[in-house]
Amino acid sequence: MRFTKDRMLIMALIATPFLLDLLFLWNNESLTEGFKHAEKRLSLLLLPVCLLSQTHRFNTARVLRYYAWLSTFILVVCLLRFAWIEPELFLKYLSGKNLWEMGYTFANSTGNHAPALNMHTAFVVVINFYFLKEKAQNAKIRSVVLPLLFFIASVILLFYINTRLAIANAFFGIILVSLYQKARLFDLNVLKKLGLGVLIFGVLGIGFIKMFPYSIQKFSSVTFAHTDKVGKLDELENPEETVFNGLVTRLSIWQSAFEVVKQHPFIGVGAADGKQELIRYFKTTDQQFLAKYEFPVHNQYLDFWIKFGVLGLITSLMYVGLFLYFGIKTRQVLCVFFFVLFASANTVDDFLIRFDGIVFSGLWLCFFAQAYVLDRESRKRGLEEKTYF
């Protein structure tokens, strides 16, 4: 293990959400609860200390490939298991019934939250396309078969879980990977790779819509329904059925969260009390639907602003922005895509309060950052070392 000033600075930057917990421990009503929240983010200190202190270069490309293939295989097994343990429900979906809960029920059967699972799946789809694109440069058809099968399987899984933002992100990621490192946008090879990805994605998407036509409603009328009821959800006859996962519900939560922020803009209310403060505001303003289900903020930037004040907002933006910085510096397109994925996902959810989101981001951030650290040290020594991207 090797520790230098540069390495320790990057370790500290990655660990900033955990360091915030320690810095604002005094601001929690219960010190014990404050430590519990810090414990969840402790991995953001342990991961960089263990991984960024290594002197050998990780083969990040190989790690990503095996991660994507293994994740795809596990999810395919989970989908087959779901069809086996819930045959009536599965057949209902195939016949076009109860489609609004399809992805959520499948995700719950694996012990996961659908938006979190589909964020992982969107990343897997783009990784699979990245390696399919690499293999497509090989003239041998045999070398393309396996990456193509994994890509198709991961796209099917993405559509089955069917969260809107993840599907949009995966589509953007395919375009980003296709155009990566190409100065000429209309280069024939670029268009071939882009066309392959978009064609497969589009054909599977059209096929999915034919089987599950509710998807068109979900992406259009359902998403933008009742936007005139922001902050007035109780006026709806049955908000549980009509807007439980709708945009109007998130807008109502954000409106309330911003009002809480204005009450404590500089030092926040503490990590352990942020959600309770928001629920208290729901009750004070007589928003019974939001208070009944005790919704969290569903926006990581607002969540950290409520808990840690303006320093929390800056930290959350900086932490997510590290992916873009390391991606540009090391020319790792998958790191740049992870920035797009994680930044947008945290706009409509709060993944730095979930252990899976914390470890998911922290692990990949360390892998991408290690390439930056070693490249920087190599340049200082005047050496050229092989990168794996």
Can you offer a commentary on this structure?
By secondary structure, the protein is mostly helical. It contains 20 helices and no strands. The chain has helices at about 5-15, 15-25, 30-40, 45-50, 60-85, 85-95, 100-110, 115-135, 140-160, 165-180, 190-210, 215-220, 240, 245-265, 275-285, 290-295, 300-310, 310-330, 335-350, 355-380. The protein is globular, with a radius of gyration of 22 Å. Its main location: membrane.
Sum up the structure in keywords.
389 residues, mainly alpha, 72% helix, globular, transmembrane, membrane, ligase activity
Q: What is the SS-derived class?
A: mainly alpha
Tell me the Rg in angstroms: 22 Å
Helix content: over 70%
Question: Termini, distance in Å?
Answer: 24 Å
Oligomer: single chain
Tally of alpha and pi helices: 20
What is the β-strand count? Answer: 0
Strand content: under 5%
Q: Estimate the global geometry from the Cα principal axes.
A: globular
What order do the helices and strands follow? Answer: HHHHHHHHHHHHHHHHHHHH
- Poorly predicted runs: none
- Sheet with the most strands, sense and barrel status: none
What is the mean predicted local confidence, pLDDT? 86
Transmembrane segments: 66-85, 114-132, 144-161, 167-183, 195-216, 304-326, 333-352, 358-374
InterPro entries: O-antigen_ligase-rel_domated, WaaL-like
Keywords: Ligase, Membrane, Transmembrane, Transmembrane helix
GO molecular function: ligase activity
